[in-house]
Structure to design on (185 residues):
């Protein structure tokens, strides 16, 4: 999730996200909210209801109930909100929020659907198209970079060794051995 959206949630619901500043040995919240921006509203509404419940209902009858998020992320195309504490109502709110994520585009928040590929995600049609395009492009770019780097590496490897062999310089002894074993071109 974009940092500015995440910070907005952290600011609005400091109690729920109290663990955000704890070290990684103690909480997964140190990684932040690791899902797309499209689920911001779901989290916002859910946290507002949790906070309201904590402030107005839970403290009256049942003593102090707290809710602390321990990890918020995407998994198998759905929102996961792991937390300590809570009561039945909180469990219901979290369950509903997680359920809503399965029909909400994780990127833009429009109505979304799940795909049936090995990498499961919940997206609207246009975000899915964009993501497939972006991924295809980055694979092509990576392949292109690999070819270029490989060519550069071969050139760098070949030249000093050619010179070293001509001059029989002793500091290139190891390289010369390698060159003899694997060849220069
Ligand atoms: Zn979308």
């Amino acid at each position: 999730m974009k940092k500015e959206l995440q910070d907005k949630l952290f600011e609005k619901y400091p109690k729920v996200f109290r663990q955000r500043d704890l070290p990684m040995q103690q909480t997964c919240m140190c990684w932040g909210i690791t899902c797309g921006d499209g689920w911001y509203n779901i989290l916002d509404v859910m946290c507002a209801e949790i906070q309201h419940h904590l402030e107005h209902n839970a403290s009256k009858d049942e003593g102090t109930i707290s809710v602390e998020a321990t990890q918020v992320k995407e998994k198998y195309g759905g929102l996961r909100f792991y937390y300590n504490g809570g009561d039945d109502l909180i469990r219901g709110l979290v369950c509903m929020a997680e359920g809503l994520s399965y029909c909400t585009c994780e990127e833009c928040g429009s109505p979304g659907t799940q795909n049936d590929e090995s990498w499961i995600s919940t997206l609207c049609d246009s975000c899915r198209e964009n993501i497939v395009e972006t991924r295809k492009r980055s694979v092509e770019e990576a392949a292109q970079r690999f070819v270029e780097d490989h060519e550069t590496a071969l050139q760098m490897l070949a030249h000093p060794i050619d010179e070293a062999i001509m001059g029989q310089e002793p500091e290139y002894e190891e390289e010369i051995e390698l060159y003899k074993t694997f060849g220069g071109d």
